[in-house]
Amino acid sequence: MEVIHMIRYIGKRTILSLITLFIILFILFLMLNFMPGSPFNDTKMSHEQLKILYHEYGLDRPLAERFLIYVKQMLTGNLGVSYSLQTNATVTNMISHTLPISVQIGLQASVVGSLIGIVLGFVAALRKNSFFDSMATGISILGVSVPSFVLALCFSYIFSYKYNLFPLLYSSSEAFRSTILPTLSLCFFTLASIARYSRSEMIEVMEKDYIRLADAKGITRFQLVCRHIIRNAMIPIITVLAPLTVDLMAGSLVIEKAFSIPGMGSLYINAIQANDYNVVIGISFIYSLMFIGTMFFVDLLYGLIDPRIRIAKRGK
Amino acid sequence: MLSKVKKTMELLLFSVIGVSIILSLVACSSSNGEDKINSETLKLQQPTSIDSLDPALSYDTSSTIVVGNVNEGLYTVSPNNKPQLAMAEKVTKKDNGKTLIYTIRKDAKWSNGAPVTASDFVFAWRRVVDPKLASGFSFELSEAQIKNADAIIAGKKDPKTLGVYAEGEKTLVLKLNRPVPFMSSLLSFASFAPINEKFYKAQGKKFSMTSKNLIYNGPYVIKNWKNGDNSITLAKNQNYYNKKNVKVKKIELKLISDTQRAVMAYKNGDVDYAALTGNLVNQNKSSKDFRTDIGAFNWYLMFNSKIKGLDNKDLRKAIAYSIDSKELTQKILKDGSVPAESVVPKGFAYSPTDHKDFADQTNNPYSYNPNLAKKYWNKAKKETNLRSFTLIYGKDEDNMGNVAAYIKSQIEKTLPDLNVNLQTMLKKTRLAKMQNFTYQVALTRWAPDYADPTAILSMYTTNMVSNYGAWSDKTFDSLYNQANTIFVNKSEVRWNALIKAENILMDSATSVPLYQTANAYLLNSKVHNFINHSCGVPLFFKYVYIK
Questions:
Q1: Interchain CB distance below 8 Å, A97 and B433
Q2: In what helix (H) or strand (E) does residue B275 lie, and over which residues does it extend?
Q3: Which of A83, B98, B177, B295 is buried most, with the most CB atoms less than 10 Å from its CB?
Q4: Do A217 and A151 share a structural domain?
Q5: Between chains, do B22 and A154 touch, taking CB under 8 Å as contact?
Q6: Superfamily for B48-254?
Q7: Which segments constitute the Solute-binding protein family domain (chain B) (predicted)?
């Protein structure tokens, strides 16, 4: 019975996600249509040439027709070609070339940031008002307030320029080593946010009546923390962590620019500036897909972590 | 509670001090990269990524540099900035310069061993003018006056009718509408490179997408590159006819778009060349590796004459006299830029008789003069009701925010009744607004494509697509046309006609030149013959050596 409920729930969420994606795609199409300027390197092109190019790429057709053609092509995995950034290169190729490195660095930053952040926040909560708590709060404030590009500059100076421990710029021949400094620069914000959030969540949970009851029942402190406090405090943390992770995976323009990483973040910004419509739509679509997919996954994860949510869903 | 806050604040303070110390150390760091250089590899910063390696579609500077060094056309440019025969070993003129016959070098080969033939040029040039490709370089074949180029570009004739033919394997014949004095400079540009038809057809849509989908006839070949990579490596072409004179075996171009990071990479020895912009120019001026060359283009104010009020010459002159370009370059920009004294930039077009710079021979009426500005403004106020205008500029263009703010303050200070509104936008939007004449005044620039004043003056002729000011003057048009027709074989008369045309243009103040950019950069002192060219392909590596 529970499985049927689960399948129905997944099906409902999948349809909702697809509708959301379709709406996002349409809004994007609409917005790009009203953007001034053309997607071509047209400084020295005649009006006739621009006309030919618009016709060649189907940009002279009505918006609705273009949208339908795009959706049809997209279903077959064709996201069109780049008009100016990498003239005539397929967007699918461009994304498949830049996405892996952005996802890798984003995931690394997310894992490092959230693990350290959770540990820092939990220990600070357990040792509330101690020196360690003050230190954790200090790190959190610093992590939130110092922008990643400042950290990137500091890390590069110390670890690359001064001591030559890591490459200053991304190099495919030293792929993993090249990602360490970008990961560290990126993870601080996540680390700080998660540390602050997990500390306050832990403190809140620790003051709940059921924790007092469990404590009164005489279970060990270790069991109390692991079985009751952490489990309950994790749900809101996951809610915050999921969009943070997607944000990191979509690529950070600043970090990619700083370390010359051929990632999706810098490609996205360049595409927006160049009016390269297909690239903008393609990346936005992938970003939305990642975001919606992650939120969907998180929703399912809630059920696994907290039986109360499962029961509530079943009730509905 | 108070002690906790105190502790937190202490921690925060120490952290901020720590970050500040590190940042100041970064700013004060000294050079240590020179020792890493070897005589066989040159590593350069490349500020933008490659947009295309197709000679007909590679528009940005980074792509042009690569395409211009792995391909070679009939001409190249010598270290002293003069066109020099390259794939052609001989040129013969006929019909008073209207027929040009080029003999292709016997030893010219593609990197796959195939000979470079006259047909390779015919195929490549027909492709550039083919409306289906809509190459942004097709106008160059039009400027070269190659027969039927205009009609083909407009879709009225077949590309096969282009006035370029192969007579046998090594003879290329060019039929022109009229002789072109700057032909050799024009032909040294990357878009005139040959393409091997057989190889091109075998690649289909994959042509130029990776280094494997290209063959090369220039001094270098590309190694292991695919679209989107953040670095590109050029290696000496073993089939190049003049390979013994190519000194540097490997060129590595690394994409570093952040200038500060580029300086760090330079000082670290990761690159031997780093371009400088903004404040970094001033900060690095004392370095022994600091170099500066005059840039290829002027920034100027363009007035849309279609707007009532802006068509008033006195108003435009009042604005021109109220801007202090000297102060703008020395106090605002501080990057080596110099005040522009003419519409045609300095250092790229020289008189064919006495080799004087064109820019030095024309009138420069607009040095800063608030009294004259007020005089013209008082005159203009009687003729027009315009009391405010909007100045548009690109937010993604270097320093334009500061330049626009300075211009606004200068005009409003000198001409109190005139109000300047600033509007920022992407460069693409600025261009679109200019092309559609939906702007009032714009901060813009124009880079010449060949070493002749007409490369700039042409855009002010009536009905020219790039005449964004919609300005028109019959005498100017007539002088321009004469320079390109009846005076074409009389170099001195032609030169003087162009000077007169420029003086008319300057007097009209339809565009007010502000400053000429500079190329400031750090270059390892062991690198020699590294010359920035003011038009066409900016850098040729075949002359560079490291010692």
A1: no
A2: strand B273-276
A3: B295
A4: yes
A5: yes
A6: Dipeptide-binding Protein; Domain 1 (3.90.76.10)
A7: 82-463
